[in-house]
Specification:
By secondary structure, this protein is α+β, with helices and mostly antiparallel strands. It folds into three domains: about 140 residues, no CATH class; about 110 residues, Immunoglobulins (Immunoglobulin-like, Sandwich); about 45 residues, LysM domain (Membrane-bound Lytic Murein Transglycosylase D, Chain A). It contains nine helices and 14 strands. The chain has a five-stranded mixed sheet with strand order 4-12-11-7-8. It has a three-stranded antiparallel sheet with strand order 3-6-9, with no helix packed on it. The protein has a two-stranded antiparallel sheet with strand order 1-2. α1 crosses α2, α1 packs antiparallel against α5 and α3 crosses α4. It is elongated and about 105 Å long.
């Protein structure tokens, strides 16, 4: 009775096939928008190719290792090599990015493959290792029950591990869902927030939102002071990981200390604010000029008759050619509130140059506008105080 011969496939150019699949993965990642193909090529690239080429470089002979030993070392070394590669990339100028990781892994695979080809070339053809896939049904049947059970268990474990890996790649676990909500100062930093403003002075904070909800979201923002809305932004539609920023402009008209500016973020479908931030500011009243009395020295003399006595005349020698002028009564000025002077910053202007135009010290301008930094922006509105 003739025994059935085992079915086998031998690949002498296994390393060339691995290099070709690695470059095909790069093409797939950057040119072909196919997640399934990326998973099929990316799984072996991460879990098998680096370790396999390293084992081929270390053990080029056919008899150096058996098939299971090569498979186990290839998987274990691949899992160990890539984290170490990421650690090294973290301290380089390129950092850990998709491009830097792909290039580093491909360089490692190509380098190990070149060493493996060189070492295999120094051996006889029959002594070189070649990847061989063999299916021996007769040998498997003739084996003991324990051997067949272990073989089946190993095959099932490999398929379960591969299936789990592909499932995790196809449907990654959704991380924490949240939304970033922040307020920046007038210079785009988390600093120089307004502390003191004047009544009617414009406040220019920057508000930002970043969607981390793993879904498309619709937001709106409301700015409230003392329970009254002073500014509103609606219809902010963001995809996952999308960022939105806008500079708001509003004024405060009610003077008082420790006034709370509430920035409220609402999410579509929720009545209550989803996120909230606040700033504390002091709002000062605009000073006005009081009515001033005319000095007595400037008042016009008035004649009041003396009751019961004849008026006495005082003789004054007049100049020959200068006629005497009768004094004219002057009217006292009426009290008018000082007008609020607003200056719009032009290119090249500084606080010193603006103060020189109005005869005001630049420190007074900073204090009137609640500025803690002398840096100005073109188009910024400044309140100019009255010169002392």
């Amino acid at each position: 009775m003739n025994e059935s011969r085992p079915y086998s496939i031998t690949l002498h150019h296994d390393l060339a096939a691995i290099i070709g699949l690695s470059f095909l993965l790069v093409v797939t990642v950057y040119l072909l928008p196919s997640p399934a193909l990326r998973i099929i090529l990316g799984g072996p690239f991460v879990l098998f190719f680096p370790g396999y080429t390293m084992v081929a470089a270390l053990f080029p002979g056919r008899e150096d290792l058996d098939g299971l030993e090569r498979l186990g070392l290839s998987l274990g070394l691949s899992i160990a090599i890539l984290p170490l590669m990421g650690l090294v990339l973290n301290y380089t100028p390129w950092g850990i990015t998709l491009l830097s990781t792909l290039l580093s892994a491909i360089s490692f695979i190509v380098g190990c493959s070149a060493i493996a080809y060189y070492r295999r070339g120094g051996l006889a053809l029959e002594e070189r290792y070649a990847l061989r896939l063999e299916l021996d049904v007769a040998g498997w049947r003739s084996g003991g029950v324990l051997d067949r059970s272990l073989t089946v268990a190993l095959a099932v474990s490999i398929f379960v591990a591969l299936g789990t890996f592909l499932f995790v790649l196809a449907k990654p676990e959704v991380g924490e869902r949240f939304t970033e909500f922040y307020v920046l100062g007038p210079y785009g930093d988390a600093d120089y927030y307004p502390r003191r403003v004047l009544q009617g002075q414009l406040v220019n904070p920057t508000v930002g939102v970043i969607n981390r909800e793993h879904a498309d979201m619709n937001y709106r923002i409301s700015v409230e002071v003392g329970g009254q809305e002073v500014e509103q932004v609606t219809d902010i539609r963001l995809a996952h990981d999308e960022k939105w920023e806008k500079r708001l402009t509003f004024a405060l008209y009610n003077p008082g200390t420790d006034q709370r500016i509430n920035f409220l973020l609402y999410r579509e479908g929720l009545e209550e604010p989803y996120r909230s931030l606040h700033l504390w500011v002091d709002v000062g009243a605009v000073a006005t000029t009081e009515a001033t009395q005319t000095p007595s020295a400037l008042r016009a003399p008035t004649a009041s008759p003396t009751t019961g006595a004849s008026p006495t005349a005082t003789l004054v020698e007049a100049a020959p050619e200068t006629p005497t002028a009768s004094p004219v009564p002057t009217e006292a000025p009426t009290a008018t509130p000082a007008s609020l002077v607003i200056h719009v910053v032009q290119p090249g202007e500084t606080l010193t140059s603006i103060g020189g135009q109005y005869g005001v010290a630049y420190q007074a301008i900073m204090e009137a506008n609640g500025l803690s930094d002398p840096i100005l922006e073109v188009g910024q509105e400044l309140i100019i105080p009255q010169p002392e």
